[in-house]
User: Fold these one by one.
Assistant:
Number 1:
Amino acid sequence: MLTLSRRAFTFGLPVTSAAVAYGPSSRAASAQGQTSSTPQQGAHAKPLPPAAQFKVGRFTITALADGYADMPFGYFPGRSAQQVEEMANAMAATKPGGIRFVFNQYLVDDGERLILIDTGPAGTLGKTGHLPSAMEAIGVRPDSIDAVIVTHMHQDHMGGLVAGGRQNFPKAEVYVDRRDVAYWTDPAKRASAPDYLKASFDISAEMMRLYPKLQQTDGERQITRGVSIVDLTGHTPGHIGVRIEDGGQSLIMVSDMLFPVVHPAATDINFVFEQDREAAKAMRAKFFPRAAEEKVLIAATHMPFPGLGRIMSDGGKMRWMTAEWAYQD
Ligand SMILES: [Zn+2]
């Protein structure tokens, strides 16, 4: 059997002197306290916050990440933990903690206004809290954000609005669906919710307190020319997406319509945060085939950074195809 391990590559490919000098063996030597001529490399290098910039018509969109969290295989109702682990293994996507969820945010610039879609968990989950430094790295200050669209009121999408008990986007108009506001501010719903959802109720209360002018939206609606809310109810009652359209190009940010590994291959696999599993399943069953038919460009919060791709039908089986974001011309 052909094995493409690193060892096989080492034996199979010509090795240049540069590769020997800067390869793994020289790093191992420096880790042992021996001399190294490349102090900026490897473990010594400061990681760059990921940022991916792409165009949709006149819009410049920048994907930024707040970080990531690994979700245990048992968090996906509809399949057993073992079945989900097998799916992850088949895709070489198994992480020590399960399936890795990235928290992608999208900054939309139309030349006049800056609109941020979602704000990440901001340290309330996994290894997160990096959105402020990612924004700083591209020279965008929180007070230059004109609007924040919150796709739904789960902690991993709105934590950044209120982290530290502050109004972190002081000049932003905040948009959130009315059905989610009703649900996540209802004391009776909080009382009957499982513990792992309590943080979302608490952060929702904080958001309502810190952003009293928050605008509650009802279904489809234009936020600014070419930027519209799309109703994707299911994951939560007021789960929305954002369509960005200009000059014959379009993108739809679908938030939690898709989770890595399990979607879009199946529509009958949920995530544990979904209270109405039938509603979430129904929306996926409707959306996946339509997105495949239209080959629409999708941005999804938890897919591998920058979360850009398309749903493709491969003989009726739905697959995720990552889309290019650089060198688009
Ligand atoms: Zn989410």
Number 2:
Amino acid sequence: MPLSAGAAATIKENAGKFEGDAGIKFTVKMYDNAFSKYPAIKDEFVQANHVKDSNNVTPQGKLLAEALVAFAKNCDNEAALGDTVDRIAKRHKVQQVKDASFPVLGECLLQTMKEELGADAALCDAWREGYNYLAELIMAATKKQ
Ligand code: HEM
């Protein structure tokens, strides 16, 4: 099901929040939160992709920030999301990411949006819907790989 027009508009307006250093700081913090709150989930990830450099940047943090910007800018255009979704699905297939893990990461995404980006209720509501939509696209594309 596509995103509601209201959620899509709010996500698009705030796409810039995930750009540049601030976006990477956000995604790196999100993984930190996820791994400390749900240690079991850590085993699903390739830890080498989560090693911080001297600027606190991780390879995976960078890739997730890029994916979130791409999603935010095109969240009302499923066709335009194809390349981003397929790339993630290919990786997820290789890593055997479980559908059951998506809600946990979604919760950590919203928690970190409040902590790091000062997201208000409207932005959190929009992203709750947006995350579920993106998760559905990724899970469906992963099954087709
Ligand atoms: C909507 C939710 C999600 C998004 C947007 C997302 C995004 C991404 C992106 C952008 C990549 C890198 C792809 C590349 O190499 O180009 C990736 C890789 C990966 N994702 Fe996801 N992902 C999501 C959910 C999850 C969940 C729920 C898990 C498991 C708990 C997961 C586990 C992984 C793993 C293991 C990799 C391989 C790299 C690494 O070890 O970090 N992802 N994901």
Number 3:
Amino acid sequence: MKNINKAGCFALAITFSPFGASGAQAQEASAERGEKLANFHCARCHVMPGRSNMGIGSTPSFKIMVKSEAADWRDKFEAFYSLAPHPAFVTIKELRTERSGPAIAAPIVLSFREIDDLIAYVDKLAIEHRKP
Ligand code: HEC
């Protein structure tokens, strides 16, 4: 746990470094930040591992997705913002896309770096929940 906290402080130091954008880009993806993002944004609909949130109807849980035998589950996480139903409420900062379709849910705005953090988190989940 101590090491994780140290890593967190280090990441913060980089975020606020005078090197600005290039410093932020060099920053490694963080599963810890990804987990926070997922619990904040995705847990509104998806059931998250280790939490007792309810999720919405037919929305697949993150655990079921990372355990999926389908080889492309990770691609789907990388592109989830372009897969239904997400384009209706997810915007990527760098793409400056407009949300498409009716606003069926409160908007979520993410940067590519935050997507990388989410991927780091689901990679960690996959290691924890898949059989070797
Ligand atoms: C408003 C509800 C809602 C929110 C918020 C939401 N999702 Fe989803 N998501 C869904 C639904 C519903 C599906 C199932 C779509 C289907 O099966 O066609 C889904 C499916 C997915 C899939 C699988 C896509 C596929 O085509 O198989 C991924 C990956 C995913 N979501 C990632 C995320 C991530 C990451 C977040 C948070 C940043 C998130 N979702 C937030 C409703 C939501």
Number 4:
Amino acid sequence: MNQGGWSCPHDVEGMCDIIHKECDPGDRGCVLYGKAKFSCEDSPSNEAFEKRMERKMREMLGDDTKA
Ligand code: SF4
């Protein structure tokens, strides 16, 4: 899937050469998983993204307690 100006080098004619199925940006195994928040609310990437951002924020604030 290629929408917009970015094209993934792992997209081979619509098939992902990492997850070995149809390209689904943000799916588990995708290079974007946890790195981006998608407008599609049920994207598995969104929860991983939120957790990553919370972790980074705690690191930046020097708070090493686990919530
Ligand atoms: S699923 Fe992710 S890693 Fe795979 S081709 Fe699509 S955008 Fe690239």
